[in-house]
Amino acid sequence: MTHGWDESAAAWIADMGEAGDFGRACVLDAPMLARIRGRGFRRALDVGCGEGRFCRMVQDHGVGTVGIDPTDALLRQARARDPAGIYLPGRAEALPFADGAFDLVVSYLTLIDIPDIRAAIPEMARVLAPGGSLLIANLASFCTAGGWTEDPDGVRRFRIDDYLEERAEWAAWHGIRVHNWHRPLSLTMSLLLGQGLALRHFDEPAPQGGDPAKVARYRRVPWFVVMEWEKASD
Fold first, then answer.
1. How far is the CA of 183 from the CAs of 61, 146, 149, 180, 222, in angstroms?
2. Whole-prediction pTM value?
3. Count of domains for the chain
């Protein structure tokens, strides 16, 4: 089951371009790269690399990257844009790499796409070298549990419901229609802590530029969290 990604790949590629959408270009790219730049990472795995945009950005900072994704059309686009790069088919729940193969593992807005997070997080921890970092950007759980509605007074407000119910729902925009998984934050945190990882950084980043209307809406209900987890050294 593709959860919509095979059917949505062409629309995704067109929508992302090289700059990315508002959330990536104006909110997440800067804080994600700030956790990588100058840290001495040598080999990174991008889990759910898509068309390879963030892999290319990480390479610009001198880090060797491997991208993995289950969607063939996105991998073909990644290879076309980065012929020297390494982009492999595969799923987060069964990563085809040896234990400790990477000193940096990245999940950039992919936890929401992974059906079996209980298998995926242990896999990410397994392929992470001792002392390495797991860097995650994810949709905030209160966002995936809610949506905008218009009250009788005509004011649009964000409503949250069924927060504790783990579920997949269809999300559609700009010709893209894919499954997004809602999970309470406590589930994600408990799975990461259960792998013995230590939380070193947590942020709800603010926009840095962009369309003022989008910035104003984002500040009402911020969409994203950024986390860095460290694997204990031997």
1. 32, 12, 21, 10, 17
2. 0.95
3. 1
